[in-house]
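Slide 14.
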Amino acid sequence: EVRLVDSGGGLVQAGGSLRLSCAASGFTFDGYAIGWFRQAPGKEREEVSCISSTDGRTNYADSVKGRFTISSDKSENSVYLEMNSLKPEDTAFYYCAAGGDAFMCRSLEVWGQGALVTVSS
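Slide 15: predicted structure.
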């Protein structure tokens, strides 16, 4: 079965760090872009970051530039999101998703189940 499993959420104080992981099964990341998205209560889902498995290009939302880093490990068929200097406004459910590489996370086919990140002040 084609699926993504995301993990690593939790509770952290403002200024702290967390690392999210996304592992693929049933397919490999070759030819895909993998992204992280988040949704907070009362708000629409937004793209946090995206990485191309073909050439390693990355995109970041303006709100997380300089604080979050996306990376991939092809040997583990996984992608990661390192989140530093966390702020209360980063609190949300985080999801990883995969789509065609050329679309850079603007066309998505598979979604993970989500991981809750809570940042306390």
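Speaker note: The longest strand covers residues 92-100.
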